[in-house]
Amino acid sequence: xxxxxxxxxxxxxxxxxxxxxxxxxxxxxxxxxxxxxxxxxxxxxxxxxxxxxxxxxxxxxxxxxxxxxxxxxxxxxxxxxxxxxxxxxxxxxxxxxxxxxxxxxxxxxxxxxxxxxxxxxxxxxxxxxxxxxxxxxxxxxxxxxxxxxxxxxxxxxxxxxxxxxxxxxxxxxxxxxxxxxxxxxxxxxxxxxxxxxxxxxxxxxxxxxxxxxxxxxxxxxxxxxxxxxxxxxxxxxxxxxxxxxxxxxxxxxxxxxxxxxxxxxxxxxxxxxxxxxxxxxxxxxxxxxxxxxxxxxxxxxxxxxxxxxxxxxxxxxxxxxxxxxxxxxxxxxxxxxxxxxxxxxxxxxxxxxxxxxxxxxxxxxxxxxxxxxxxxxxxxxxxxxxxxxxxxxxxxxxxxxxxxxxxxxxxxxxxx
Length: 416
Ligand code: C6P
What we know:
Blueprint: H1 3-9, H2 15-20, E1 28-29, E2 32-33, E3 35-36, H3 47-60, H4 70-90, E4 98-101, H5 104-119, E5 125-129, H6 138-147, E6 150-154, H7 164-170, E7 175-181, H8 193-202, E8 206-210, H9 222-225, E9 229-233, E10 244-248, H10 250-255, E11 266-269, E12 274-276, H11 290-306, H12 308-327, E13 332-335, E14 344-349, H13 354-363, E15 366-367, E16 369-371, H14 376-381, E17 387-391, H15 398-415
Parallel strand pairs: 3-15, 5-6, 5-7, 7-8, 8-9
Antiparallel strand pairs: 1-2, 4-10, 9-10, 11-12, 13-14, 14-17, 16-17
Helix pairs in contact: 3-11, 4-11, 5-6, 12-15, 13-15
Bound molecules: ligand C6P.
């Protein structure tokens, strides 16, 4: 089916026009047209984002919150306007609840250090799921090592769906934190986080939702979810690298100690005593990543202008098509077959190592990720070392899926 037909069948998305906004998509790799199917690792960036960053460097480059001069005022305005855009993107109740960080990883580490140190003690339990990225395991493990708390794991089934009965059974008053992803990067599973948050709250636990793979693909409403903490990374939502967001409920953030000390996070400093700045600046020590915060604002605005519901609907159909086409190839084993999935197709091609498959696909111009996807416990669960993972964005097309299928056939021929 042609791309045009597939659009007509799904949503109002004009993918051909959207693709014009993404310069990196229009290139040849090893003499073949690029099919960029590694969006879960890092998505591509539209010109709107590139222009916003260029505009900062060409006209407004100065430090923020520090200068009375015009350039600093402009930089501060753009930096803070970007925060307003992120607030809108997440539907956060208050602007002060939006903290700029380097990415999802730093957001989780900030909470593990600051909230964790004050609220977790020996005998407490922290629940993570069996399908977490290392970023949502290791900081909690480190916290457990420091405090004597216990890390417990919500199990999953062979489809890659969390076992909700087991989750309910694990919940008790000992559980102080539930840390789960909204969408799994290795399997694509969309977890029922709203329900799981409500269950966690019923036993008095705080929730950390890792939205790194959800924010680019589904509408996120932190108020509706009632998430206590929610993190995502700019580079996966079509924005720059090195910037991301920690959302936290104001009352929790107010009660937390700063993560890092330095400029901008203080109200008053003396050698005897320092008082801290108000939110969100209490958590933004030092000169921040100004240019990329501005770029992130442009990125979430771009995504909202395309429409998160349109993105989700288009990608759902593309994923269905890819699942059907790839699984029809002899010898393919899909890893992650949950009922509710977003934009990730992980698979094995016979007993070909994923790195070999990824290398051959690259020679065909197809960018995928091969490896454990920083989710080694998921690989262990399926007793495999790695998968080949195609991950889609709303600018991908059925033609690119067809190219992937031809590439897989080639891998089979070469390693047959
Ligand atoms: N996953 C992938 O290829 P950072 O690196 O901080 O931007 O994001 C970390 C992270 C956290 N949670 C989930 C669910 C993720 O998928 C990621 C990043 C990439 O799957 C790179 S390992």
